[in-house]
Amino acid sequence: MLRIDHVVVAVRDLDRAAAEMWDRHGLRFTPGGTHQRWGTANMIAPLGGSYVELLSVVDPEVGPSTELGRALLASSADGDRWFSVCLSDDDLETTAARLGLDVQQGSRRRPDGIEVRWRGAGIDQRGDELWLPFFIAWDVPTELHPGSGPADHRVDVRGIAWVEVAGDEARLRSWLGGVEIAFRVVGGEPSGVRAVGLTLGESEELVVRP
């Protein structure tokens, strides 16, 4: 089963980006931890079973030497920008084999010292098609999923309703293996994530554009 796990914003300054998200949208972000492999760090806004992630290169030596780090720096060169979508995948190995992707182990250590582990596919193997989602399978109990953490948002946000992407719809359907995900595909250049709709209480939606 595929479902939206989280959406990623490429930023240059985590604290500044978190403050702007709070001011503009009422979303509270807290430090998530560092990814030594990519020289990055993140901040997270839990939404229940999903979350929004701010991601930035924080190690000037490691970050630019990695595919992911270079992509983040390029995406955020002119300001904070939606970067990618991650899908939770109950059969990650099958999806990876279908798309010719490697399954890689990943982890980060939270500020409280707890290690969060996962397996991912497509994080840095999508070339210039970063608008296509990557895939994840969490190797932690449900309560340690980043979306399950405590939240102090100013709005009654319940989860991710949809993601708007610019790209080739046929290419996206092929990438997903025909599985229906709440993507809204639009035309125009450049390709990429354009907006994310968050579900609020009483059937309202919050449209987030960094």
What does this structure look like?
This protein has 210 residues and is an alpha+beta fold. The protein has one domain (2-151): 2,3-Dihydroxybiphenyl 1,2-Dioxygenase, domain 1 (Roll), CATH 3.10.180.10. It is built from four helices and twelve strands. An eight-stranded mixed beta sheet has the order 2-3-4-1-5-8-7-6, with helices on both faces. The protein has a four-stranded mixed beta sheet with strand order 10-9-11-12, with no helix packed on it. A hairpin with a 4-residue loop joins strand 11 and strand 12. The longest helix has 12 residues, at 14-25.
Strand order of the largest sheet: 2-3-4-1-5-8-7-6
Please give the radius of gyration in angstroms: 16 Å
Q: Roughly what is the average pLDDT, rounded to an integer?
A: 94
Query: CATH homologous superfamily name?
Result: 2,3-Dihydroxybiphenyl 1,2-Dioxygenase, domain 1
CATH structural class: Alpha Beta
Query: Stretches where pLDDT falls below 50 for ≥5 residues?
Result: none
Number of domains: 1
The overall strand count is: 12
The largest sheet, given as strand count, sense and whether it forms a barrel, is: 8 strands, mixed
